Amino acid sequence: MFFSDKMKRIFLIVLDSLGAGELPDAERFGDKGASTLGSLYKTGELRIPNLLSLGLGNIEGLSYLSSADAPKAAYGRMAERSNGKDTTIGHWEIAGLISNDPLPTYPDGFPSEIIEKFEKQTGRRALCNKPYSGTEVIRDYGEEHLHTGDLIVYTSADSVFQIAAHEDIVPVETLYEYCGIARKILRGKHAVGRVIARPFVGEAGNFKRTANRRDFSLEPAGRTMLDALKESGKDVLAVGKISDIFASRGVTEAFITHGNEEGMQISASLAEKDFNGLCFINLVDFDSVYGHRNNASGYARALNAFDEFLPTLLGKLGDGDMLIITADHGCDPGDISTDHTREYVPLLVYVKHILPVSLGTRECFCDIAATVTEVLGAGFDCDGKSFASEVISND
Question: Which of 185, 271, 355, 372 is the most buried (most CB within 10 A)?
Answer without folding.
Answer: 372
